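Recall the central idea of this unit: under ordinary conditions, the amino acid sequence of a chain determines the structure it adopts. In this exercise we apply that idea directly, starting from the sequence alone.
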Amino acid sequence: EILLKEKEHTTSVVLLRRQYAPPLLDVSQDFAVMLKCPTSLFENGQCTEEDLMHEAHIVANSMGPQVQDQSLYPNLVQAKLDALLYDEDGYAWIKSRLRMQPEGTLNIFMYGWYFVRGIVSTLVSDNMLPHQLLNDVNAKTTTFRESGEVHLDPLNIALRILAKPPDTKEKKGASELEETDDSKTVHAWQSRVARYLTFCVDGGLLGARLTLADILHSVRLGITQGVAKLEECLVFMLHMRPVDLQVPYTLQPLRAQLLALGLLGPAPEGFTIEVSFTDRVMHLILESGYIQGLLPAGNPETLSVDYVHLLDHLLRSKSSSSNLKACICRQIIAAKDVDRGTILVPGLLEVMKSNGLFLSTYACAALVNLSQAQDAVKSSLMKHDVASVVLQQLRSNDGDLMLYALMLLVHLTKLQNHRKTLQEAGLVPLLYDVLCDTYGVLQYKRRLITELCSVLGQMCNDAETRMALCDKSKCVECLLILYETSEGLRS
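Accordingly, the structure predicted from this sequence is:
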């Protein structure tokens, strides 16, 4: 829900999403309910914000499909489940609503339980989880026909039992398989197995009683006997590999894997290193600081060069979700110091150019933190044509994005050569337009106007800009009105 307040109109917005639409549960629909009324009605007491939102709620609650009895294609849904073609959220939704699980000739659901049992057994033996949980898992697995000690090893399940899709001939060995056209199919299947096992571990089978965070906590402690096995399981579920499916997946320690993929150094000029991975696992190990601990800097409060290169590659990767990129931006914003922050400039600008308002705001805020008192970062930004990007953000009419764009301009306009480049790009007329649009709503846009005045002041250090704003526009009159309003001299 969003309430947009402008000088002339106030708009209430309710956004709705219909996910997993029948018959195959593979599409979604987005709806927006928008109601607008004059702002003067609020000032006169004829309407309240609650009334406007209530009307929007009534409209949203009245929406529904015309067809009341919607049919599914359960056979096709089951086939997609057996091929592991849904993501983690899809598995969870289908399990809770339709009570359907992956089955097939490989008994994937059964082996998912065995995989979880092996991890739970390791955590219980290290006193990281209660014994009752292992008893409950054992009670569940005894209901399956197949059992045996071999199933207690989760890596045996991941790397051998579920290594090939059900339609792959068993007589083909691994070395022979790599030379056939089936190698891409098998490697893609292994990636989907890793994603499904991630779902099983991260609350898919046991809810909050077992999640990826429990495994990561045990691994980070590093004092348990089974930490090596848990690390291998975590790395397999991450399943970071080249996007070229002809290349087989190799299980190795995470740092060695990142190094082998070239993610700890710069990419060759004009080339982007593309990798695939399980987004949910990557998000967790980044947000928890696990990878940062594997790639330490001299100062614990500083992001190391290796880690900065990794973040840059992830920002550029097509496999990274919006939430993962937002997580990376939050880490850059929170960092007190970044070794060679110029490495991150192209990736952050790419996010600002090619993504929506949500990520653009995060990326712009990250650049504000990077460019603070860092002349090298500012020069790199100007070299990569930040002027056109920032002007685009100022035209977005999104308050938060405009605010961070202005904060970035405060840093960039401190040097004369940077001011000249920005002026040639058309910044000054745009700043004046923003001032004319906002000076009358100081009570709503105080922070934005503060940064706007700072940028205008620094741009006016150049005589040509100062004369243009003073003699050929009403900039001074607008600023005087702002001053009088802020001092209570004008209502």
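The two ends are 31 Å apart (CA to CA).
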